[in-house]
Amino acid sequence: MRSIPLGTSLSPTPLNTSKLSPFNINLKKPTTFPSWVSPPSHEFSLSHSGLCRASQVVDLFPTVSPGIIVREARLEDCWEVAETHCSSFFPEYSFPLDFVLRMDRLVAMLAGFTLPNGCKRTCLVAVIGSSLGETFLFGSEDFKVGGFDGKFSLNKGYVAGILTVDTVADFLPRKGPLRQRRTGIAYISNVAVREKFRRKGIAKQLVSKAEAQARSWGCRAIALHCDLKNPVATKLYQGQGFKCIKVPEGANWPQPKTSPDINFNFMMKLLNNSAATKSN
Ligand SMILES: CC(=O)SCCNC(=O)CCNC(=O)[C@H](O)C(C)(C)COP(=O)(O)OP(=O)(O)OC[C@H]1O[C@@H](n2cnc3c(N)ncnc32)[C@H](O)[C@@H]1OP(=O)(O)O
User: Fold this and answer.
1) What is the pLDDT of residues 198-249, one digit of tens each?
2) Is the N-terminal amide bond of 256 cis, ω within 30° of 0?
3) Dihedral angle of Cα 82, 84, 90, 93, to the nearest 10 degrees
4) Does 236 contact ligand 1 (Cβ within 6 A)?
5) Any residues with CB less than 8 A from the CB of 258 and at least 6 apart, and which?
6) Is 194 in the pocket of ligand 1 (CB under 6 A)?
7) What is the number of the ligand 1 atom nearest to the C-alpha of 198?
8) Is the beta carbon of 235 within 6 A of some atom in ligand 1?
């Protein structure tokens, strides 16, 4: 059993831990992007792709849910976000450890998330049993607690999946002799879908919305680290147009700090190509 990173913030650590038995993955030939530049000017748009799959989920809540909605997490989602995170990444933990872990994540989410100047971070949730139109929100537009929208709703729905996207670039190679934080590249972490809601296209919708969010921030690319021994997640990202990036020989690129036996694939997708636009 791995030790629990108590007290660590949810978002800076991608926690791309696979719970699947390791086997060889035949990854696509690593790609090196020709350039890190050429900023896009895409409009922000809500993604409703994959709603046909959502109908399968709706069956579980026939009288309540019109479908799956991917939106920014709000304060009232906190516990379910922590629960989704812990049950997906640490499914082997049972009471009381699982409860302690959830509490730890909850506190980290609410207390943490101090962002470097000019950086952005959003926690997205895929919810079932709510609709944007029916939601009545309390709170001001700009109020934020941690990575969470400070608004509060009585019709919150049930959190089935989560994803964090940011522009902090903690896990991207620094640039220049001053080792400056890289800009224009969004980073995805903490992607998780509750077990009973998997294979319904929820992760795809989350990734798609993260891309839209990144475009709205003016990012030209989006990146992530994925556990080499997590073929399901690798397939998800490859299916969404991410390419495995070969880390140059001898380069000391930053990596998520999980357990030492986890090796990561660095994956990236340019947001200014037609495939990226099509997926939204
Ligand atoms: C950057 C990071 O955070 S990496 C961490 C990823 N998270 C985890 O490993 C946590 C545990 N796992 C999970 O929470 C989920 O299994 C996830 C997030 C990996 C996938 O969530 P889901 O909602 O089930 O994925 P979704 O239904 O959108 O499937 C998208 C694609 O992923 C692949 N995929 C998903 N599940 C499977 C599976 N069991 N077997 C094979 N391929 C799969 C498929 O290519 C699928 O596309 P398709 O349905 O058109 O074939």
Assistant:
1) 999 999 999 999 999 999 999 999 999 999 999 999 999 999 999 999 988 8
2) no
3) 80
4) yes
5) 5, 13, 14, 15, 16, 17
6) no
7) 24
8) yes
156-178 CB burial, b ≥16 within 10 A, e <16: bbbbbbbbbbbbbbbbbbeeeee
Helix axes 202-216, 231-239, angle to 10 degrees: 50
With 0.80 as the threshold, say if the pTM is over it.
Answer: no
CA of 84 to the centre of ligand 1 (A): 14
> Which atom of ligand 1 is found nearest the CA of 205?
28
CA distances from 246 to 50, 236, 254, 264 (A): 31, 19, 14, 11
Of the candidates 79, 48, 22, which has an alpha carbon nearest to the alpha carbon of residue 212? 48
Is 237 known to be catalytic? yes
Q: ipTM value of the model? A: 0.99
3-state secondary structure the chain: CCCCCCCCCCCCCCCCCCCCCCCCCCCCCCECCCCCCCCCCCCCCCCCCCHHHHHHHHCCCCCCCCCEEEEECEHHHHHHHHHHHHHHHCCCCCCCHHHHHHHHHHHHHHHCCCCCCCCCEEEEEEEECCCHHHCCEECCCCCEECCEECCEECCCCEEEEEEEEECCCCCCCCECCCCECCCCEEEEEEEEECHHHCCCCHHHHHHHHHHHHHHHCCCCEEEEEEECCCHHHHHHHHHCCCEEECCCCCCCCCCCCCCCCCCEEEEEEECCCHHHHHCC
Q: Is the distance from the beta carbon of residue 191 to the nearest atom of ligand 1 less than 6 Å? A: yes
Given a contact cutoff of 8 angstroms between Cβ atoms, the answer to whether 157 and 127 are in contact is yes
